[in-house]
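Workshop exercise sheet. Pairs work together: one partner reads the sequence aloud, the other fills in the structure field after running the prediction. Swap roles for the next sheet.
Pair: D.N. / O.F.
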Amino acid sequence: MLRQRGNMKKNLKLPMTPGLPTEEKGLLLARMLDEKQGEEIVLLDVTGVCPIAEQIIMVTGKGQRHAQALADALLHLAKEHNIASLGVEGYQTGTWILLDFNDIIVHVFQEDLRGFYNIEGLWSEGRRVDWSTAPRDAQ
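Structure field:
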């Protein structure tokens, strides 16, 4: 199934995970990061603002191994829920791991790099999603 992205100039279409809307998928991923003790989790809805994703998630890891464990947990969750995983970058160093789930991009940072790259500032036009208080009926 293909879904048209909102207000994009090029009228791009991205494949969507069958049966799991982007909003539910973002909440699922954010909650997994919280369960694995990720820090400062931010979920941004960047629909119509970002040309490559509808949501962006940022999380801080407590070190290289923790960052890698967060990435591993997300990949395992994606496999369990049949969520397309299009690629992973930066896993070996664990300082900035980028996971591409097609309509959602996840950035797993170490604290110093997160502040330096300021992804939240880059996508400040996006809307913050309060994942911690959203209903859990999607799971």
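Discussion prompt: The beta strands are 2-4, 13-15, 39-45, 55-61, 87-89, 96-100, 104-110, 127-129. What would you look at next?
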